[in-house]
Amino acid sequence: MEMWTFLIEPRFIITLLELMSLVLLGGFVNVLKQRTEPAEAFTVAGVSTEASSFKCTLLGTPRMPAFSKDGIFIIGGVSSIRYQLYTVVYNYTTKPEPPRCTGSFNARGLRFFRTMIFAIEQINNSTELLPGIKLGYQIYDSCISVPVSVHVAFQLTNGQDPVFYKASNCSQSGVVVAAVGDSGSTPSISMSRIMGSFNIPLVSHFSTCSCLSDKQQFPTFLRTIPSDQFQADALAKLVKHFGWTWIGAIHSDSEYGNNGMASFLEAALKEGICVEYTESFFRSNPRSKIQRVADVIRRSTAMVVVAFTAIGEMKVLLEELSRDPPPPRQWIGSEAWVTDPNLMSFSFCAGAIGVAIQQSVIPGTGVSLLCELSSRNS
Question: What range(s) does the Receptor ligand binding region domain occupy (predicted)?
């Protein structure tokens, strides 16, 4: 029997407690905006009036959550369990279905989900935190996809009921008062712009882009992880510490990678570090683009490569490099990928160093997860 060891990050507990204080201080959050105009009975775009009753109907097919539980208040959750989005080409004769996540399995994302559920259950079972109030959750897999994250953001702000009558004083399900997520900066930016319009807080456990610190653009965004500005400075000082003054740099072609690399290059310039090349790419780029980036690394004279990339991009690049491994390189990584155990199978990455987020074991969490795994396998 294989024994699983779970190293759980405490940010979810902090995140949930922060959300609870937001709920208590802010009160109820109105997530459904309605506007009525005097007119005869009509039915347009999912809105209809029958006599004096005003009814709102959600259009489209709702996306099913990966985990859900009803409660008086609902905490939304968005992160990634899988790395790719399965798309279907439609001929416009059938109703499109919600996009499905596919690809390799992200164990870190699943641990985030299970830890969030564990935190909510701990709050519900406590006699001191929110006594008499039961929290529920709606947790979604975003596939690290902006379109999916946007879909989820609208679904959370619309509420959980497929039909809502204005004359009704209460909803059939709990109200979404806040959300945790996403694990990526780019999806979090899109979600925050939507949810911020409805004053719904979005608290991220892993979105590090310094751009999200702008309260003018993201007034309701909060996070329990430092901004990338600190990481960029640390990476530059790390390179300087070892006396590496001639390096190569690659980054994800996303808000996370672009902003992070820009901050790193600025810090590297101050430290007197010279950069031979800077390449950007995204996991969904044509293979020819990934091959070109890999060839640049193989042909370069810089023996040190700083990679400010998300896990999805790094996985695609390393798979391409493994077809024709480059000469020995010293890899320096950002927090998104440098501690991922799945990437350690690439031998030419041995000795990689970088910045990591502090972890700790939360009492009771590992036992809870192992018990659930045993019950599912029995």
Answer: 115-364
Number of neighbours of residue 37 by Cβ within 10 angstroms: 6
CATH topology of domain 228-354: Rossmann fold (3.40.50)
Q: What is the pLDDT of residue 46?
A: 52
CB atoms within 10 A of CB 243: 6
Residues 6+ apart with CB under 8 A from 126: none
**354: CB partners within 8 A, 6+ apart:** 235, 238, 331, 332, 333, 334, 335, 338, 339
- DSSP letters for 144-155: T-HHHHHHHHHH
CATH 3.10.20.310 describes domain 11-225: no
Dihedral through CA 63, CA 145, CA 360, CA 232, nearest 10? -160
φ, ψ for residue 43 (rounded to 5)? -140, 105
> Is the torsion defined by CA of 256, 258, 261, 265 positive or negative?
negative
**CA dist., res. 338 & res. 360, Å (int):** 17
pLDDT band at 40 (very low <50, low <70, confident <90, very high): very low
Percent composition of the chain: helix, strand, coil (DSSP 3-state, to 5): 35, 20, 40
The three-state secondary structure class of 315 is helix
What dihedral do alpha carbons 370, 372, 377, 378 form, nearest 10°? 110
How far apart are the two ends of the chain, measured CA to CA in Å?
Answer: 13
Over residues 208-245, the pLDDT tens digits come to 999 999 999 999 999 999 999 999 999 999 999 999 99
* C-alpha 274: how far from chain center: 33
Determine phi and psi for 107, rounding to 5 degrees. Answer: -65, -35
Domain ranges for the chain, please list them.
11-225, 228-354
